[in-house]
Amino acid sequence: MASNLFVNRLYVLTELNQVAYDERFHHGVNIIRGDNSSGKSTVAHLVFYALGGEYTRFVDEARRCSRVLVEVSLGGATVTLERPLDKDGEGRVKPRQGMTIHWGTMPEALDGHCRRLVLGYAAGQSRQSFSAVLFRLMDMPAVQAGSAITMHQLLRLMYVDQESPTWSLFMHEQFDRQETREAVADLLMGIYDASLYGARLDLRQLEADMDEAKAVLYSLKTVLPEGGRSRDSVNGLIGRKEAEIERYARDIARLREGESPASASRPLVEEQKATVASLARECSRMEEQADLLEHEVQDTRFFIDELTSKRAWLMQSAGTRRALGSMRLDYCPECLSPLPADVPEGTCCLCKSRVEGEAGLTQARRMAEDLALQIQEFGAALRADEERLASLKARLRASRRKHRAAQGTLDELLGTARGSMAARLEDLNYRQGCARGELLQYYTLLEQAGRYEDTAARLSALKEGRESTCRLIQGLEEGQEQRRAEVRRCMQRHGVYFLHHDKESQKAFADARPDDFHVDFSDNRVYLQQPHDRYSASSSFFLKLVARFSLLFASLDIPWMRYPRFILADNMEDKGIETGRAQKFQQTLIDSLARYPDDQYQVIYTTSCITPQLEHSPYVVGEHYGMGHKSLKNV
Question: Taking the domains of the chain in order of start, what are their residue ranges?
Answer without folding.
Answer: 5-192+502-615, 219-331+357-462
